[in-house]
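Hello,

Following up on my earlier ticket. Below are the two sequence lines again, exactly as submitted.
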Amino acid sequence: MRLPHFEYAAPRSLDEALRLLAEAGEEARVMAGGTDLIVRMKHGLLKPGFVISLAEIEELRPISFDRRKGLSIGATARLAEVASHAEIKRRYPAVASAAEKTANVQVRNMGTVGGNICNAAPSADNAPTLIAMGAEAVIAGGKGKRSVPLDRFFKGPRLTALEPDEILTAIQVPVPPPYSGASYQHLSARGRVDISAVCVGAMTVFEGSTCREIRIALGAVGPKPLRALEAENLLKGQSWTADMIDSAGRKAAEEARPISDVRASAEYRRQMVDVLTRRAVLEARSMAGKRRR
Amino acid sequence: MKHQITFTVNGDEVSILVDPWKTLNEVLREDLNLTGTKLGCGTGDCGACTILLDGRSVNSCLTLAVSVNGKSVQTVEGLAPSGEELHPVQDAFIKAGAIQCGFCTAGMEMSAVYLLGQNNSPDENQIRAGLSGNLCRCTGYNQIVEAISMAAASLRDARPEGVKQ
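Thanks for your patience. The regenerated structure is below:
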């Protein structure tokens, strides 16, 4: 399986990358780790005339944490780096867990969280947790910088809010509030390695026994990662009972818009949204109990 | 336009002109005649093409050759540079009978070397997770897991302070 022919550049600065992208227009594709782009090019699904690699741009690499701004995951931070990063494991364990559950060892050593987001597969393993945690896509383009909340970043299968002249530079995740917890749950045919058939991310903030805030995001059960807003409403402001959690699971299943494909039937997906939503909110609550600050 | 790249393969510096659409796998096998690294699926699923890039295990079929400029590549040929004395991982694969057709072996061994560099005493689950990106159609994996356990033990005996790649 050979790649179609293309020209290549690996600029050393973001400005240079933006300039090259603006000049090349729709002919160009931006590449981070390449584990999605190269496969799609080999399958003939994409035939860019020009590939712009972000790999040599130092400013896009770092993962950093700031007590006010929160976590910044640079566009080219690899999945393996995010999965094993000490600060992420301590403060954002669900983010590390989702990265660790993405693909396999070799792909995690090449692929990036930013690429997983920009590839915009409805099943993107890193999307539900990051959406649930209120993450934003930080974007640079010809008109300057902007940020887009991640739940508005996805527009459809393989479609994002990025304009043709724009590059994702980082994913910014707010500081988790005190008494908050998050969880990532997924299911696939083999349990590991293969693409998720259903995935759910949840984040919740508690005040005593009352849930003050909750966000639930569903993956692989719609044209893009979806918020389960009605399920959230059943749990927000409440002291959860077992019945409430069951209702929220069922409501999330109603909100899902799954299709049947090679990975699972729509019926199975819908039922598993129910199960995984309950697991995710319960784990998020239990994490919230452990995390005082 | 071809790109001039310079990188090391198993410690030797290589300078070569490559087309940007050539994968590292193609350059290793076709231009450098290092055919120990196999090409299986070509899409990052099977791991037969696994090599170490700056010490990290990656799929050479998904790596553009032009992107390894300035980097260090290790292939299965680098595990036994003399061609005679085998790497403890290779030894263990033979002793455990972890090979049938052999097509996945080079990739398995590179993943094993990477895993043991990270963790010198992996348990069975950690070994299986470490091989999650390598498929074997013959052995059923049991002998491979056993081989990696054996290799870990012999590497620990050889270098008790911890395994370095």
